[in-house]
Amino acid sequence: MTLTKRDLVNRIAEETGQIQQKVLIVVQKSLDYIAEALARGDKVELRNFGVFEVRVRKARIGRNPNVPTKDVPIPQRSVVKFKPGKEMRKAVLRLPPPPKVPVQPPQT
Length: 108
Description:
HU Protein, Chain A; 37% helix
């Protein structure tokens, strides 16, 4: 199941008794401020949740799977990294492992 922004707004509105439109404004502003901070290269720490930070991936040489003999230069770029907080990490570790999907042998 996927938790969407709409689901989050509905749940907060139900639990707090606030109007959904007001909750949506607060949630959207929060997300906007996080995105703005990351766009400036700042670190965002949300206690008991996790840390977002911008990291730079080094330039590297990749391969085109359609033409494996040809090298493709991949330039350096910035990416957002998320490190979950201690409580979240513990909660996720308690999840049961997903069921294994049997692998079908290739047909000849």
